[in-house]
Design brief:
Elements: H1 23-39, E1 54-59, H2 65-76, E2 80-85, H3 97-105, E3 111-116, H4 121-128, E4 132-138, H5 144-158, E5 165-169, H6 176-187, E6 191-195, E7 211-213, H7 216-220, E8 225-228, H8 244-251, H9 255-258, E9 266-268, H10 281-284, H11 291-314
Parallel strand pairs: 1-2, 1-3, 3-4, 5-6, 5-8, 6-7, 8-9
Helix pairs in contact: 1-5, 1-11, 2-11, 5-6, 5-11
């Protein structure tokens, strides 16, 4: 890959969510990630593709996998990177989000990767900033790169997305991962099932065009992919489940329940995992688990997103 970044590119210079991405754009990202994954297998895991570009990582929520994954992706593409956490920024002194970003923009970054607790925060920045904005998770709204790396992992193992029965189970009400995955998987032709207690099922979920159930046994029956999501206590105000012990008894993914799925089913989790709450350790560490593959693939997918958005910056369409 040459230093001069050119087409192919995405239609927008931002990645704010899966919503708005067409099937051909999703396929382009996944295909590009395959090439990027090859870079990670080299002795020297670095290419000059984004040399001279500056990327700011602006995280207003705690993150390990996503933040580190973006940082590794940026460094492998030779970008100049700067990572800022809320605790070390002027936000702690009362500075607004817009003022923080405008001050960063004065230093002419090419891209800003942002995670924020408020849904829609990246969209606000995209309307006011010259930099390309990448949504690394906004409130309970979307987490597009997680959905893309999940899709990449599924396609890598299964060879396709269309026609697969994909179960997403857990705290769906507070999950941005659930929303992004539903949008992507439906766009790509998968048969999506959602499973959660009634208290953790999003309102209006029946309008998503997916199957819903409060029975984990029914959901897992014949599944090709089972994706478990954690209980997000930090976003809850009130009591949504009686106890974590009862939740695991009724909704936890155990080896017995997994036996209902297809013999070649794969088990996924975006992390962090709560072992013994939504997933049994025997499943998380078992032969069907691709959880660590998801982490590894996250670097390649985020490299692809950075590369494609950088290419789009030169031939801006929107």
């Amino acid at each position: 890959m040459a230093n001069s970044v050119a087409a192919p590119a995405l239609r927008s210079r931002h990645l704010l969510g899966i919503q708005g991405l067409e099937a051909d754009e999703i396929t382009l990202i996944l295909d590009t990630a395959e090439a990027m994954k090859e870079i990670g297998r080299r002795a020297i895991k670095k290419v000059p593709t984004l040399r001279g570009r500056t990327v700011v990582n602006l995280f207003f929520e705690p993150s390990t996998r996503t933040r580190v994954s973006f940082e590794v992706a940026e460094k492998r593409l030779s970008a100049d990177t700067l990572s800022i956490a809320t605790a070390t920024s002027s936000v702690t002194k009362g500075e607004t989000l817009i003022d923080t970003v405008r001050n960063l923009e004065a230093m002419a970054p090419d891209m800003i990767v942002m995670r924020h607790a408020s849904s829609g925060a990246p969209h606000l920045l995209a309307r006011t900033c010259q930099s390309a904005i990448i949504n690394a998770g906004d409130g309970t709204h979307e987490h597009p790169t997680q959905a893309l790396l999940d899709a990449f992992t599924i396609r890598e193992r299964k060879g396709r997305l269309a026609g697969l029965k994909v179960v997403i189970a857990g705290d769906l009400l507070h999950s941005r991962v659930f929303r992004s995955n539903v949008l992507l998987l439906k766009t790509m032709g998968a048969d999506v099932w959602a499973c959660a207690p009634a208290t953790l099922m999003p309102p209006g979920v029946d309008g998503f065009g997916i199957r819903t159930t409060t029975s984990i046994d029914e959901a897992v029956e014949g599944a090709d992919v089972v994706m478990m999501l954690r209980i997000q206590h930090e976003r809850m105000q009130g009591h949504f489940i009686p106890s974590v012990r009862e939740y695991f008894t009724l909704f936890g993914l155990t080896p017995t329940r997994l036996a209902r799925a297809q013999p070649d089913a794969i088990v996924m989790h975006p992390g962090p995992m709560n072992r013994g709450v939504e997933i049994d350790s025997a499943v998380a560490d078992g032969p069907y688990s691709v959880i660590l593959d998801q982490v590894a693939n996250g670097v390649a997918v985020r490299m692809a997103v950075l590369y494609l958005l950088a290419g789009g910056a030169e031939g801006e369409q929107s």
